[in-house]
Amino acid sequence: MELYTPVLALLALAAGFAIFSVAVSTLTGPKRYNRARLDSYECGIEPTPQPFGGGRIPVKYYTVAMTFIIFDVEIMFLVPWAVYFDQLSWFGLIAVVLFLFNITLAYAYEWRRGGLDWD
Amino acid sequence: MNDEFTGPAIEWARLWPLFAVFGTALVGVAVEAFAPRSARCLIQSSVAGVGLAVALVGTVLVALELPERAGGAARGDVTAGGAVVVDGPTVFLWGLLVVVTVGGLLLFAERRVDAGLPVFAGQASLPPGSTAGPGGPGEPSYEDWEHTEVYPLLVFALGGMMLFCASGDLLTMFVALEILSLPLYLLCGLARRRRLLSQEAAMKYFLLGAFSSGFFVYGMALVYGYAGTLNLAGVAVAVRAGGGQEVLLLVGAAMVMVALLFKVGAVPFHSWTPDVYQGAPTAVTAYMAAATKIAAFGAILRFLYVGLGDARWDWAPLLWVVAILTMLGGVVLAVGQTEIKRLLAYSSIAHTGFLLTGVLGLQASGDLAEGQISSLQAVLFYLATYGVATVGIFAVTTLVRDPGGEAGSVARWTGLGRTSPLVAGAFAVFLLSLAGIPLTAGFVGKWSVFASAAGAGAWPVVAVAITSSIIAVYFYVRHIVTMFFADPPEDAPVVVVPSPLTSVTIAVALIVTVALGVVPGPLLDLAGHAGQFVR
Amino acid sequence: MIAFWVLAPVMVIAALGILFVRKAVHAALLLAVVMISLAMLYAALEAPFLFAVQIIVYTGAIMMLFLFVLMLVGVDASDSVVETIRGQRVLAVMVGGIFAVLLGVIVGQAGIGTAVGLGAANEGGNIEGLAEVLFSQYVLAFEATAALLITAALGAMVLAHRERLVPRETQADRAAARVRAYGEHGDHLGPLAAPGVYARHNAVDTPALLPDGSPAEQSVPTVISNRGTGRPSPSYRDVDRVVGQLQSRRDDQDPATDTVVEGSGSAARGEDA
């Protein structure tokens, strides 16, 4: 627990700062609104996709979410390997490279089939 | 951890069929990524076909080389640090799974039954009922597209199943359970016709399946809390030693069993079965109904016999109840069904009950009378007969079609025996086998599981099993009677002539079903030769 | 122990909140609270790896996926609470109650023994110990997980991705089409003029001025002009006003000119609409 005390302190500090900034700006800041100001982007660019029916977004973004999760899980498996790397030697290296290669295959599939295209 | 790390010994000589299957699936994914769409279907089905052939040959080779253990009562090896056990029952189930998957692959690749179109949806992400493609007629459309991902998914499912019934510890078993389940959830949602029903099936299967997986993990953790290990052999040692917090073991094992019984569709965890069997593409249903049951019963047998063999008086009464409920629930609900695939789904639930009856026949090898069939042998044989007949019967249901897809309603099949006796005849033989009429494989299977359960003293269960078999015969025979002894309706459904892919599947299933009914000896011996589980 | 007594009430309240809040988004955020608190408990229990997993995978990825799915179905969507199966709610409460009683009895029987084995497992470091088992007895399960992740990727693509029927239009294609349009109909070939930037109001809604002083209507993004929030070239009016002021200073005469200029301004506005 001792180990995390600085982290927790920093966390509290960051949270405090964030809350303080938001609170102060709402209290002291000028409040003049017009329609353009309330847009997501003041330059007039439409947010893509345009929210419709209560801010729904197209299902194609789901692929991106899934890719994110896959890489997330992947890095969690890499952590023990990286920490214990010197002991695991060649066996560990081969195991991890095989694992990464397999996942990269899935990534290549997504990329080649246009799952990552932004149009 | 000052001692030097050494990797586990992975015996390639025993495991290579498993690696071949996973390798095939990976090649399939690479093909998906880099092959042009027009060539994909052909390449994918060939890759899968070659992979399955290699796996089949490999399984046979591995089976021939298994070292004997325990004075010949068992054969096989524990490998990969205790994670995988390649023993007699494992290779028997591997062989069975690969054979069933070959049947599934042939049905997957079928194109002729639906006017040249594949059996899977052109583009699954389109909303159900939407017109294919943006343009009008003549414009490019998704109509003749196909998700060739189904082939790697099929092979992945096979790999998961092979690992599932070979896993020596609960963690590997859990990972394998997920590997076999995820592709099946997906495949269920890819039917070309009746998209909404198919998506509903996938959704239900996924949600309930994920829920049951949660049970597995929780149970696994509790078993670890009792035994201090996830290894089944280690659990067995802890159980034999006794003491400790028994409650943890009982609750944990019960939760693991909930997940396993869910996979085989035992009452009260059966509610997904009819919806999923009906909604999934029939090729997938055929594969799933046969293969999942084979793999999951492999896992059930290993978990109960290896891990909890010494606690059998704790789990047997509970399993008695489940077996009785499953058999009665299956047949009673099947009587009122009006859809062919739902009827077969309930019938498969009843078969789960019969298989559980066989599982209950566990006896110590010393108690086994001379020449008596061991419960393991009986269940393995039953799985073979059930798997083959199931693939065959679902393959036949793809042939009878209405304009909108398969003629699902039982009433539509009226008089089919008059218009196309061949198809109706094949269907009738499979039904008779499922009913367990003598001279079909189903009879020998049923007889062997009942005999083994009776030998272990599970008389009440056997009595219920016989009663439900009689009820089952009633609705199977009723269906045969309406097929052969009633006039076909005016707008009778069309019976299509399939490509050799489906024909061969049906023919082989038919031959095996009859052959096993007439001369069950060789396969029964093979199942007996597999011996006991290695721990 | 302090960590537990601080976090446990937070978690329980947040978990109850998940059940009772009306909006799905709020439930998801409360779930995040539960997950982060759980992560802190892991840290307090000397399980740093699990702590990291809980934060990175659960709070990061899984929560994100939840929110994503909520956005797919619409943030404002709320559940229909109509029972489709009669008596379902009563049955659910009954079965849940029975299950709770069962669990209570079991936990009561099991008692809470002292946890053992933590010291042995963490000897030489938590993550190192984990690596040791992950790469020895569970190495096959670890490799097999790759199959699981690949299946997940395949599934996401199959169910959510719509492939293109026709090849994608590249930049070269668009350039060629533009030149063709220029050749056939004489359409404008170059880029459009940028909007006038006068650092007042919302700058891009102000049309640029062409050399002759007339506004370039096309320089305002169509989004803005379609929405009707564009400003009808105030700059135009401003120029006139400056001219008018100069004149008034010279002629020592005022509001009449201004009225005229105002009139020309509204004429420009009319043209705009």
Automatic annotation (TrEMBL), chain A:
This protein's record includes keyword Transmembrane: yes
Transmembrane segments: 6-27, 61-84, 90-109
Name the UniProt record assigns to this protein: NADH-quinone oxidoreductase subunit
Record's subcellular location: Cell membrane; Membrane
Main location: membrane
Function, in words: NDH-1 shuttles electrons from NADH, via FMN and iron-sulfur (Fe-S) centers, to quinones in the respiratory chain.
Keywords for this protein: Cell membrane, Membrane, NAD, Quinone, Translocase, Transmembrane, Transmembrane helix, Transport
EC primary class: translocase
EC number annotated for this UniProt entry: 7.1.1.-
Pfam families: Oxidored_q4
